[in-house]
Here is the input.
Amino acid sequence: MKRLLLALILSAPPAMVGCGDDTPTKPKPNPGVVYPIRSTPKNAVLYLTVAFAHRDSVATDSVYADDYEGTSSDMTDPSSVTLTFTKADEVRAVGGLALDQHITFVEMDLKSLDSWSELHYASDPSDWVTVQIPHFKITVVAGSGEGFVVNSDASGETWIFEFTVKPTNGPSGTTYQVVRWVESRTQF
Here is the structure.
C-alpha cells in the first residue's frame, strides 16, 4: 500500500507535495472532523485513520513519534525490497494528498475495532503496544475512477498490518503516538 501511495505522491508535481518542505500542510478547515482522544493504543490508530481520511497533515504530524519508522514489504514480488518511511515521509505524503486537486476520495477503513488485537513484542520497551489489524481497505481515488484500492481480503494473499504505539505523559494524561507501522504482503 505504501508503495502505491509513495508512487502516487512522487508522480505529483513538486508544487503539490510542498517542494520538499517538511512543514505540515494544513488542509481546508473542516469543523465537522472529530478526532478520538489518543488515551488508548486503539484510539491512536483511529486518530491516524481520521487524519488520513481528512488529509490532515497537522494531525498526522502529531500522531507519529519523532522516532517513527514504517516498513512495507511485498513478498509476492521476488525482486522487491523492503521500503522504510520516516515521520517526515508520512506527513509529506498526507500533505501531498491534501494539495492534489485530482484526488477526490481518501479512506483508510480498518474494519471493526473488535477484530483488532493488542499484543506486546518482547523486543519492544515494556510500555509499547502493537495493534494488529486483520482486515483493511485503503482507497485513494484521483479523477474519475483513477487511483488505487488496497484490500487485505484479496484472494490468495496474507497481510501483516500493524501499528506499534508508545505512551507519552503530559499534563492532560497519557497520549499514545505511533512509533512503528509494519505492512507485509505474501501469497499462499
About this structure: The longest strand covers residues 173-187. The beta strands are 64-74, 83-85, 103-109, 117-119, 129-132, 137-142, 146-151, 157-170, 173-187. Helices lie at 2-11, 41-53, 57-63, 87-99. The first helix runs from residue 2 to 11.
